[in-house]
Amino acid sequence: MSAPSVAAIEQFAGKGAARSAARKRNRATSGSGSERRPRWVTYALLTLALAISFYPLYYAFLLASSTANDIARHPIPSLIPGGHLIENIKRVLESDIGFWKAVENSVIIAVVTSLSVVLFSTLAGFAFAKLRFRGRGPLLVFVIATTAVPTQLGVVPLFLIMKQLDWIGQIQAVIVPGLVTAFGVFWMTQYLESALPYELIEAARVDGASMIRTFWSIALPAARPAATMLGLFTFVTSWTNYFWPFIILGSSNPTLPVALQLLQGTFFKDMSLVMAGVVLSVIPLLMLFIVAGRQLVAGIMQGAVKG
Amino acid sequence: MTSTQTPQFAGPTSGEDGDRQQRRVGFSQKLGRWDVKLSPYLYISPFFILFLVVGLFPLLYTAFVSIHDWDLIKGQGDSVGLKNYDWVLHSETFWKSVRNTFSIFLLSSVPQIIIALVLAAILDANLRAKTFWRMGVLVPYVVAPVAVSLIFGQLFADQSGTINQILTNLGLPTIGWHADVLPSHIAIASMVNFRWTGYNTLILLAAMQAIPRDLYEAAIIDGATRVRQFFSITIPMLRPTMIFVIITSTIGGLQIFDEPRLFDQDGRGGADGQYLTVTNYIYQLGWTNRNFGRASAVAWILFLIILVIALINLMITRRIASDQSAGEKKRKKVRA
């Protein structure tokens, strides 16, 4: 069975898709006529906002390319980078924080968590959005309510559980609690409700497909745009997560954020070294952002309208 | 439950309707019916099982730990009733951490929402290169709080920090961004604002674009200025989204840990605990002092605080929502 194209699904989808399409058309026509292009002041303000969002990152890069001495002598770095970036990066890689181990851990945790969150959330979202079963309504309300539960505060017993399992210092202690999230389930439910027409499911069922087959061949392909966004958000969240990995992994088997903190040293804080570490940790996500930033923007904006 | 998951043998049932199910009877038919009945529960079960084991149970069990002597290494000790709570509520550091948490929270959420509103209004204009600007404001979101904290720690360094040097160059007195209470809160709040303002801008922008344009057209005909339109149409129409943003930032903001922890190299929330937050304090009690009983007592108190605030939020939201639906009904009547 071939997957129906996303465009075809959106044709069926009705309301949501139609509304946004209509809005786009509206804007397009009004753009040429009644809604004028803004003046330069607007662009100046936006440029300022962007400068503020970029400066701290550029600042990190500037410090990473200078030396501890320079930083002490010139607290305001010159906007032209110095020539010590490679040397500082080498020092980070050769330091005793276990940089490559940390990268490996961060990548494994982020990839596994993202894939698993997408799979389990789509599965649950498919059930909530398109299947009928007793207790569906209350259970969905429960899922939504749990997004507001500050589970981080259960950190002591969670630590005790991991101790029982002998998982302290092991990355599965970070992976397992993040395998599926309430936000993900809610997100996929919302999306599949409008993006997956009942006709397609019925057709698959009439053709003799089981539930799981229907999910795999119909729901999963239809969920692809939302699933991509969910995967991206989960990846970013996992990559930047600190609190729990810090507590459960410690410095012996760290993730990248945990390792980064170790660069601060105890006696002497060499900011050029610390910032080289910061730059190294930020680059992968900046690259991801260049490739997929558009989708992150769209994801936040879609989630907002629905949520 | 899993044994019913045999896709290859599932019968040709028609799905959720169930009215065509009686056409054929047989083994495969039965399997098919089980498939339809049990699959939904099977599909949603991973979330519920995981939430119960790593979310709800630990949270509730925190209450149990909190009424015991409980050492990180030695484990469970005697039941001590409310002794841990008594100790915590009489601890000066605890109240300091509560003060710090709320102060940092207010300093980060209020300016953030105002700036996000303004930025969203600017982005809502008919811009050239829309996507570029939108992506631009979102860049800080992909920077880990740890990295943000290390960067801002240097920007706001007390001696030979960038901001203090700028102040000196301008002939102004330097500020104890780490040493003093309010300045350190401002510095930490600025990290939170740096990372989240763009994110919330996009949420508000999406809500702005969903406002029907005819409202603005009517206002223009009535002679309303841009500013008047913003306050009389945009802000009221954004209320539900703003409440959503406020609630999510409350729950996250009161649990802040990373930024104050990494603001200096010791991670103790300052020499005098001037920027120690409640979650930092939980860590300190539990893992530095090895006292899980007291750490749990603090966690449970913070949980209750968040619960109370969430309920207040909910009540306000309800009221506003009912106001709005009443307003909408009125409008519909007028139209009819």
Q: What value does the average pLDDT of chain B take?
A: 86
Oligomerization status of the protein chains: heterodimer
| CATH architecture identity of chain A | Orthogonal Bundle
- Main-sheet strand order of chain B equals 1-2
Summing up helix and strand content along with how strands pair, one would put the structural category of chain A as mainly alpha
Q: Identify the most extensive interface between protein chains.
A: A-B, 111 and 112 residues
Largest sheet of chain A: none
Approximate helicity band of chain A: over 70%
User: Which radius of gyration of chain A do the C-alpha atoms yield?
Assistant: 24 Å
The run of helices and strands of chain B is HEEHHHHHHHHHHH
What is the CATH T-level topology of chain A?
MetI-like fold
Tell me the overall shape of chain B. Answer: globular
**Percent of residues in beta strands of chain B:** under 5%
Number of beta-strand segments of chain A = 0
Number of domains of chain A: 1
The CATH homologous superfamily of the largest domain in chain B is named MetI-like
